[in-house]
Amino acid sequence: MGFDHDSQRRGLMLVLSSPSGAGKTTLTRRLLKEDDTVQMSVSATTRAPRPGEVDGVDYFFVSPSDFDAMIKDDHFYEHATVFDHQYGTPRGPVDTALDGGRDVIFDIDWQGAQELAGKAKDDLVRVFILPPSIAALADRLKSRGQDSEETIARRMARAEDEISHWDAYDYVLVNDDLDETFNRLTAIVRAERLKRSRQSQLFQFVRTLQSERQRS
Q1: How, if at all, do strands 13-17 and 124-130 pair?
Q2: CA atoms of 87 and 62, how far apart (whole Å)
Q3: Domain for residue 185, yes or no?
C-alpha cells in the first residue's frame, strides 16, 4: 500500500484577509463548497446575531463578561475589537480539526494573523487578497447594497490601513479575475499540504523504506 498524503497529514490554518469587497468571502465560500476537508473557523463575538445567523454555526454569541473570562483563561488563539464589538478564535475546535487532518479557514485581519503567528506559526498559511483598484473596491461595496453610505466610507478608510500590511502575509493575490484567483488559491493550499512538516506519518514511512532496503 502506498503513502497517502491526504489522509496522513496535519491540517493547516489558512488565514484569508482583505479589505471588505475584495472578494474574500466569495473565495472562501467556493473553497468550502469544493473541498470537504476544509472548514470555517467559528469565532466568538459580543455583537448581537443578525437575521438568519445561528449560534455555534455562524458565531458563538457571548456576553462581554464571558468574552473577557475567555481571554483571562487563554481560550483564544487571537482576539480583537472591530467596529465596537469583540471577536476571538476559540482554541478547542481548531486544535481538534488540525489533529484530524482538516484545514481551518480564518476570516481575520492582519492583527489577528500576527497573533496566530505568535502562537501557531508552524500551522499557519497567510493569504492577502487585494482588489484590482480602489475604484473597483468602492464599486463592489456599493453594489452589494448592504451598507449605508456612512458604513461604506468607514470601510474604505479602513481598507487603506489593511492594504498597508500586505507584506505581513505569505502570499498576496490580486483579485482581478475571480476564477483565476481561486485557481491560485487552491494551488497554494495544495502545495502547503505537501510540506514535510505537515506529513505527520512521513518519518515512519521513510524508516520503513530504509528497513526494507537493509533487508534486501
Answers
A1: parallel
A2: 10
A3: yes
Which of 41, 111, 124 shows the shortest CA–CA distance to 78?
A: 111
CB-based contact 34:124 (threshold 8 Å): no
Domain tally for the chain? 1
- CATH classification at residue 159: 3.40.50.300
The mean of the pLDDT values for the chain is 90
Work out the number of other CB atoms within 10 angstroms of the CB of residue 99.
Answer: 11
Q: How far is 162 from 186, CA to CA, in rounded Å?
A: 23
Domain coverage including residue 176: 13-41+103-209
Q: CB-based contacts of 210: which residues, under 8 Å, 6+ apart? A: none
Query: Which pLDDT tens digit goes with each residue over 57-90?
Result: 999 999 999 999 999 999 999 998 888 999 999 9
**pTM recorded for the entire structure:** 0.82
Report the distance separating Cα 136 and Cα 140, nearest Å.
6
User: What is the per-residue burial (b if ≥16 Cβ within 10 Å, else e) of 120-142?
Assistant: beebbbbbbbbbeeeeebbebbe
- Among 84, 80, 169, which residue's Cα sits nearest to residue 130? 169
The full DSSP string for 125-174 is: EEEEEE-S-HHHHHHHHHHH--S-HHHHHHHHHHHHHHHTTGGGSSEEEE
